[in-house]
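Researcher: Quick test of sequence recovery. Tokens follow.
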């Protein structure tokens, strides 16, 4: 069965919808320019409602140690998601410093972007293969952009990986069929407005992913 991560959760209602529908991961965003940004205090309150067996993931973008220290101290987490331009060395450093599994996001637009996956595979616990943002984009992810999923067809990696980028209840089954993804991540594809999750879309997305 495909595992689903619902990212960018901000309210108890949307968190509850994700958990009740069967999400295996829930994501909290700590990035000031994102409409899904949370304070550590708000994330801590949400994290307290997450039942055992559902992984709590903090998404950060090129965060410094002080920022990560504050998040890790205040929010009970199961994983850190690095969604910026962190080098492989920085990924390894963060993993060692916090003792948490690390998921590294890698943006893909063309076949030329694929070698980056191997660079990070040796230092990250999981990989998030996402659509590469357009030049000048405000956000590194959550833009509702997809890439050519056929680029991943038949490829295998040694680490668990998650497919992201432009997924929705309507296309997630096709994305899984083309890529063989065992895990998928969605944020804007289950929103009715930027940063505002829709419980019905969350349920529809998870149901479609599980059927696939």
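Model:
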């Amino acid at each position: 069965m495909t595992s689903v991560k619902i990212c960018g959760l901000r309210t108890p209602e949307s968190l509850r919808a994700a958990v009740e529908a069967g999400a295996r991961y829930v994501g909290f965003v700590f990035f000031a320019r994102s409409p899904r940004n949370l304070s550590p205090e708000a994330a801590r309150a949400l994290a307290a409602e997450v039942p055992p067996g559902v992984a709590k993931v903090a998404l950060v973008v090129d965060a410094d140690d002080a920022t990560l220290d504050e998040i890790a101290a205040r929010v009970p987490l199961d994983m850190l998601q690095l969604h910026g331009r962190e080098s492989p060395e920085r990924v390894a450093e963060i993993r060692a410093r916090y003792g948490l599994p690390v998921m590294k996001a890698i943006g893909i637009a063309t076949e030329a972007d694929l070698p980056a996956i191997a660079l990070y595979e040796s230092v990250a616990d999981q990989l998030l293969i996402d659509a590469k943002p357009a030049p000048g984009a405000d956000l590194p992810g959550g833009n509702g952009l997809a890439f050519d999923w056929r680029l991943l067809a038949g490829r295998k990696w040694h680490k668990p990986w998650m497919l992201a980028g432009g997924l929705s209840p309507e296309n997630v089954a096709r994305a899984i069929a083309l890529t063989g993804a065992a895990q998928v991540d969605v944020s804007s594809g289950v929103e009715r407005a930027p940063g505002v999750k829709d419980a019905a879309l969350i349920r529809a997305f998870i149901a479609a992913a599980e059927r696939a």
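The first strand starts at residue 3 and ends at 6.
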